[in-house]
């Protein structure tokens, strides 16, 4: 069993952007959105395994996001029939506690990379290639510009892809137009994120 949290799921950004509008999705609808965005590479020659692996990556990303976003005061509701992001209530209700308990087994299953039916090395290779493949081409930063942007984003000197992604989601939630933020600010932050990704 290896639930290595440093192995960041490559779908986190794409799923976060889809859910950040507040729209509700079913798992198959979320999968269709990701497929239409051409996010998935070919995962397996067997169509049944291909479907399983896509589903596994989606669910793993959802549970990683759920844990992370909870730290920022947001709750990601995960159910096969209803997946959506909402502002967390101040008081945790009994029903929410029951929901968390009832989903604990699924969470453990999907956060365990060994259930992806491959070796740890193969998963790490997949995540690395996935991250590199879907970086968008943007204008390169000079060292001075990179230092300024790094300070603006309050990133450590030697930040990881995981730290950058987490900071992006913090800023995106704060500035998203559908959450009352400014559209121009959100667009600028998204562009800066692409620039910072290209420096990794």
UniProtKB/TrEMBL annotation:
- Keyword presence, Chaperone: yes
Q: Where is the J domain?
A: 148-200
Q: Name one Pfam family in it.
A: DNAJ_related
Has UniProt tagged this entry with the keyword Chaperone?
A: yes
Q: Which domain of life does the protein's organism represent? A: Bacteria
Q: Which keywords does this chain's UniProt record carry?
A: Chaperone
Q: Which InterPro entries match?
A: DnaJ-related_N, DnaJ_domain, J_dom_sf
Q: Which residues form a coiled coil?
A: none
State the name under which the record lists this protein.
J domain-containing protein
Lineage of source species: Bacteria, Pseudomonadati, Pseudomonadota, Gammaproteobacteria, Alteromonadales
